[in-house]
Amino acid sequence: MISNMRKLLLIGNVSQRNTLIKKLHKLGCAEVVATPQIEHMRACDAQQDVDAYKVKLAKLEYFMQTVKNYKVVAKQLAKDHKIDYLPAKGRGMFAVKPVITFEAFENIAQTETDIFTHIDELKSYNDEIIQLKSEEQKQLNTISSLNPYKALTTEFSVFRDTLNVNVLLGEVSNTKLADLEKIRQLGGEYEIFQSSPTSGVAVLIEKDKREDIQDVLSAVEFAQCSFADDKTSAEIIAGCKTSLEEIRERHNRNVEKIMTFENLLDDVMKLYDYISLEIAKAESANSTQASDTTYYLEAWLPESQAEIVNKELEDSPLSLAFSIREPLESETPPTLAVNNGIVAPYESVTNMYSVPFYKEIDPNPGVAFFFFLMFGMMLSDAGYGLLLTLGAGLILAIRRPPKGELNLVKIIFMGGISTLIWGFLFGSYFGFSAKQIGLWYWFNPIEEPMPLLVVCLAIGLIQMFVGMAINMVALIKQGQSLWGISSAFSWYFLALGVGAFALAGKVGNWAKIVAIVLIVLGLVLLMLSGTFGKKGAKKVTGAFSALYGIINFFSDLMSYTRIFGLGLATGVIAMVFNQIAEIISGLLPVKFLGVIASMAIYLVGHIFNVAINSLGAYVHNSRLQFVEYFGKFYTGGGELFAPLGSQMKYYKIGEPQTPKTKSQKA
């Protein structure tokens, strides 16, 4: 359900504003919002503080990202025995936020100076690594440019012009070396120092013939050598390799130094959350109005927390006056969904589409029920359901995530239970049918696909009707009862009429009369629903355009055949992997090898199948909620309730749970 909200209106001393905001943060149930302009008061300007905090936040992000980036490099260097590094144990993929007390959280500010000093040190090491990479590339480029002259055993300085002769040293592509013969035909001379893909070429030209031979050099794309050292190419290459060894050694040492900061990550994450909260507090202060001595603040509170806030403020000197009231008609409070542990994980699915609007009916219970139901049908294999339930259940048992964390794992756990149930009903166990292993089953979709299609469409029809019922209730609450009833019951009567008509042949002709009456009544109500909200001639066009909705209705209903398709695909793919395993096992001459090969195919094939089809079940299931279900009633467009403290990314404030002693348990 959507929690009712209350608004806190408070006047206090300017000197105690930050203390009051800190108190609201500790309570963790207030979202401070911008206040309207008040006469004789001015808007607070804390933007400079916000900007300063954001700079600090960027430095902390730089630290964490840099350590993360070098971790892979450090692991490889340690594996190659080039540095001493033992990776620190991280939180893991399915970690939950550690709990920190409010008092410990407030003390994090004392670590700020030391941490930013370490960040400056890390930055100096990283900057040096960047410089070293530039130097390394420079040495590699030098070695690469010397490649055509590796066969040259004399110093580069030897190749200098004399009084009457130009001496040129350069490189030419091996594909054009034959064209150099024209140089001799023009009275010049050359020598090739063979290499690949280009070779070094020394050219001797009488100065008065330079212009004639220059055309030949241009034609072969002769690139003049840039080296003029008193060293051979081998000596320069050796020097470059020595420099590269020194550069790489310095690089490795710097990586090793950077990774020594890895043990600061927890403190950095705490400071990150602390500064994130300081930004939220500064922005909250920024939302208030103030005079020289007093300030005015507004905040949203859940109705369930209003009494607690009221008591805290009554017992403290932090306010001169305050009141807590219900929202005005002109106000739009933020949305806080309050659901039990089964429904709450599905809030993440709804919020992917849009946060519910404050005044509308909470869609999450319906999403939870139908998502659970359809997920199992899309996988429809008891073996896969067991794998998902055990895998996700093990993660949840180890991590024990609180509400709001590891929602995807919770959804998969419940989806596994649904898959287990549907798999039992359909008699599918890792692609083997219940008939093969002598177990009971309702029907096998692969052998009898039509009953599955009927069940899928029936579930889709029920979900669409539930959506229409929710829309009807919402319209009735808005005082538009006739519109709500006609828009919902028109489809109910049409569906009952079509059903009665289909059964007429079995129960008698009287069913046809009932069917016709229901269909006509449904069409009349449907046309009536199309007239609401319209005036004049538009009422007539609205009535007839409402009939076009019949096409959209059946189009939406047909979308539920994707449940049918995914359910069959999972079973067929599982069955194919089993058949491949049996064939491979039979082809191998040694029975032991056949068993190993078949087990490998079973393992890889079924893991792939359950993974890819679980992803498909999640995506297509979400699509059915967003389009076919939400399209019947959902408004969305709400703003998620974000109290002070919800901005924390890595930790959460609370009291750490301690294991109970035997006496406490007793």
Keywords:
666 residues, alpha+beta, Alpha-Beta Plaits, six-stranded antiparallel sheet, four-stranded antiparallel sheet, 22 helices, 14 strands, 59% helix
The gyration radius over C-alpha positions equals 38 Å
Oligomer: single chain
Helix residue percentage: 55-70%
Which overall shape is indicated by the principal axes computed on the Cα atoms? extended
Sketch the major β-sheet: 6 strands, antiparallel
Estimate what percentage of residues fall within beta strands.
5-15%
Query: In total, how many beta strands?
Result: 14
Low-confidence stretches: 659-666
Q: Give the number of helices.
A: 22
| Structural class estimated from helices and strands | alpha+beta
**Overall pLDDT level:** 90
Distance between the termini: 37 Å
Tell me what the structure shows.
The chain is an alpha+beta fold and 666 residues long. Among the domains are: 147-226, Alpha-Beta Plaits (2-Layer Sandwich); 344-480 and 532-632, no CATH class. It is built from 22 helices and 14 strands. The protein has helices spanning 17-27, 47-79, 102-106, 112-145, 181-185, 210-219, 233-259, 265-286, 303-314, 347-353, 364-379, 382-399, 407-426, 434-437, 449-477, 481-507, 510-529, 537-547, 549-558, 561-587, 591-629, 662-665; strands at 5-13, 31-33, 42-43, 99-100, 165-173, 189-193, 198-206, 223-224, 289-290, 294-302, 321-325, 428-429, 432-433, 652-653. Strands 1, 2, 3, 9, 10 and 11 form a 6-stranded antiparallel sheet that branches. It has a 4-stranded antiparallel sheet with strand order 6-7-5-8, with no helix packed on it. A two-stranded parallel ribbon has the order 4-14. The two termini are 37 Å apart.
